[in-house]
């Protein structure tokens, strides 16, 4: 019997998948069966005592066929017990004589493992502080009390004592999760292994580690790995799970070489911009040809499970070119608009991966790494307005498998359209996270200014990308648009919409902000809630409530 600790947040992932694999050394592990547990459901049970139940293991090829059962038990751990458990595991690192206690020399080695660079006299002072009974040694309870007290006053854990990674850059909960996973998975010889972020990651065998090393990449979320990650992970708002975005490994390596190095920057400056533009124009012509229709089944197969054709307004055989399919319309019922009659609630403009920030400073700190990014640079002289100074912004990134029509997030009057010519860099996070190029301020884009009564002026920016030469709007200047109305579409490829709000005009939803602060994109659909007007509503955003279960 083995156990794993899990930390959950009110607005975070809470669907845990338990998968049983047949392990293979030189090939992908074989998925035998799986089950899913909603961790929030467990919190509604009476867990004064340990709760146990048998769960059916489902056949991976059929959600109704079972392969057997797996017994699962859980209980909620008291915070004091969590601190003691953590202290016990930390203590074991330097408990050379295995007596469950630390001498001064062992305590000193532990402080060094924390990477805090404390002077000898400071370490001795902490040792005396921890040794509350004055017996010359520090036991588990004393160490737990010291760590809890110091982390609140003056944190002494600078580096993970297992892997050595720097801590304290983000938040305490993430640091605790990181160290717990390091302790859990550090030996690598357990029957039950946790810490996998997606099913695809768990399926890799022993060769996975070698391929990861060869690619100089990591399998993580957010800027701990940043744009060096070869696996793009996003949080699915609907299912409350992390999912992996489909992208070919060769493309990842190519994009990293082009956008993440000074050599790549030199190539871009020496003519690659024109090559990307010409490539997009040629691909656009190809996708508008009748011959391109034969690629539709291949595309659906590539993104199997990610494109729901039952939502499409027209049957697949009606599309005479690939682009007709790509800009397909959906049935009106497929994307209901949240609070459609309440103009003070803004909704998401696209099926996309979303990042929301209360200020430009936050966006450049967590996500946009282009050295020249600014609201003025994004909007250009003809569309920029003083009202947008220090404003909020939300980034809607569309991937090829997404529905590629974008919708109005607020109700108001379209004041004007401004077209800005430019490059066609990719809008993939590998480029957006690069300090060597300025995707959003150099790419081709069309800006629309919408005047609203609830949010003031809102800038709607449609940005072209590699393979996306065409940006089309279906509204014109002077039109009054309702929240949720179709506003336009992108032709073949992936692209991005950025909406800029005036300062203090909108309070973005808490879950979107929390994920964005972790540099984690949220997968959303058109019409789901984005935020609330701060001008016409008194809004109090409560802090995320955290709890831990085991």
Strand content: 15-25%
The separation of the N and C termini measures 13 Å
Task: From the alpha carbons, calculate the radius of gyration and give it in angstroms.
Answer: 26 Å
Into which percent range does the helicity of residues fall? 25-40%
Oligomerization status of the protein chains: single chain
Number of strands: 24
Provide the low-confidence segments as ranges. Answer: 185-196, 201-229, 249-261, 538-550
- Biggest beta-sheet profile: 10 strands, mixed
Which structural class is indicated by helix and strand composition?
A: alpha+beta
Strand order of the largest sheet: 9-8-22-11-12-20-16-15-14-18
Tally of helical segments:
17
Mean pLDDT: 76
Cofactor: pyruvate
Active site: 351, 407, 495
Family: Belongs to the phosphatidylserine decarboxylase family. PSD-B subfamily. Eukaryotic type II sub-subfamily.
GO molecular function, one term: phosphatidylserine decarboxylase activity
Please, could you describe this protein's structure?
Catalyzes the formation of phosphatidylethanolamine (PtdEtn) from phosphatidylserine (PtdSer). Plays a central role in phospholipid metabolism and in the interorganelle trafficking of phosphatidylserine. GO terms for molecular function: calcium ion binding; phosphatidylserine decarboxylase activity. Its EC number is 4.1.1.65. By secondary structure, the protein is α+β, with helices and mostly antiparallel strands. It is about 30% helix and about 25% strand. It has a 10-stranded mixed beta sheet with strand order 9-8-22-11-12-20-16-15-14-18. The chain has a 3-stranded antiparallel beta sheet with strand order 10-23-21. The protein has a 3-stranded antiparallel beta sheet with strand order 13-19-17, with no helix packed on it. Strand 8 and strand 9 (about 240-245) form a beta hairpin. Helix 2 packs across helix 3, helix 2 crosses helix 5 (about 140-155) and helix 9 crosses helix 10. It is globular. The two termini are about 15 Å apart.
């Amino acid at each position: 019997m083995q156990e794993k600790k899990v930390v959950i947040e009110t607005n975070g992932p809470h669907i845990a998948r338990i998968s049983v694999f047949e392990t293979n050394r030189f090939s992908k592990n074989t998925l035998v069966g799986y089950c899913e547990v909603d961790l929030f459901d467990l919190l509604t049970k009476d867990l004064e005592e340990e709760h146990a139940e048998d769960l059916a293991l489902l056949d991976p090829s059929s959600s109704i066929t079972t392969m057997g059962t797996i017994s699962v038990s859980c209980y909620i751990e008291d915070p004091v017990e969590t601190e003691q458990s953590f202290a016990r595991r930390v203590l074991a690192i330097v408990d050379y004589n295995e007596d469950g206690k630390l001498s001064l020399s062992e305590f000193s080695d532990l402080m060094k493992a924390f990477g805090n660079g404390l002077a000898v006299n400071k370490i001795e002072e902490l040792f005396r502080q921890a040794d509350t009974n004055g017996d010359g040694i520090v036991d588990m309870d004393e160490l737990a009390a010291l760590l809890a007290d110091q982390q609140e006053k003056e944190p002494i854990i600078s580096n993970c004592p297992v892997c050595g990674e720097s801590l304290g850059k983000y938040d305490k909960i993430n640091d605790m999760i990181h160290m717990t996973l390091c302790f859990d998975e550090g030996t690598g010889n357990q029957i039950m292994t946790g810490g996998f972020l997606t099913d695809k990651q768990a399926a890799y065998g022993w060769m996975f580690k070698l391929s990861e090393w060869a690619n100089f990449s990591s399998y993580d979320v957010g800027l701990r790995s940043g744009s060096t990650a070869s696996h793009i992970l996003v949080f699915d708002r609907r299912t409350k799970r992390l999912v992996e975005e489909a992208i070919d490994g060769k493309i990842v390596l190519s994009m990293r070489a082009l956008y993440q190095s000074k050599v790549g920057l030199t190539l871009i400056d020496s003519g690659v911009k024109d090559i990307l533009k010409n490539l997009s124009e040629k691909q656009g012509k190809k996708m508008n040809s009748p011959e391109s229709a034969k690629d539709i089944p291949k595309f659906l197969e590539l993104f199997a499970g990610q494109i729901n054709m039952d939502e499409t307004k027209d049957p697949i055989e009606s599309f005479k070119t690939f682009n007709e399919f790509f800009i397909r319309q959906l049935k009106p019922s497929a994307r209901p608009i949240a609070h459609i009659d309440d103009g003070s609630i803004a909704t998401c403009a696209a099926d996309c991966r979303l990042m929301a920030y209360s200020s430009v400073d936050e966006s450049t700190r967590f996500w946009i790494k282009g050295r020249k990014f600014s609201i003025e640079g994004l909007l250009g002289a003809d569309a920029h307005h003083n009202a947008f100074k220090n404003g909020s912004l939300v980034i809607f990134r569309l991937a090829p498998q997404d529905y590629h029509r974008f919708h109005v997030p607020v109700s108001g009057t379209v004041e004007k359209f401004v077209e800005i010519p430019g490059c066609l860099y990719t809008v993939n996070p590998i480029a957006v996270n690069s300090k060597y190029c300025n995707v959003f301020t150099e790419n081709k884009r069309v800006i629309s200014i919408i005047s609203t009564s609830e949010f003031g002026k809102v800038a709607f920016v449609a940005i072209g990308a590699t393979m996306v030469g065409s940006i089309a709007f279906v509204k014109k200047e002077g039109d009054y648009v309702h929240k949720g109305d179709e506003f336009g579409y992108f032709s073949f490829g992936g692209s991005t919409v950025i909406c800029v709000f005036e300062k203090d005009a909108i309070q973005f939803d808490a879950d979107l902000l929390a994920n964005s602060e972790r540099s984690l994109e949220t997968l959303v659909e058109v019409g789901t809630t984005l935020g609330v007007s701060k001008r016409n509503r008194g809004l109090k955003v409560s802090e995320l409530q955290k709890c831990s279960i085991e």
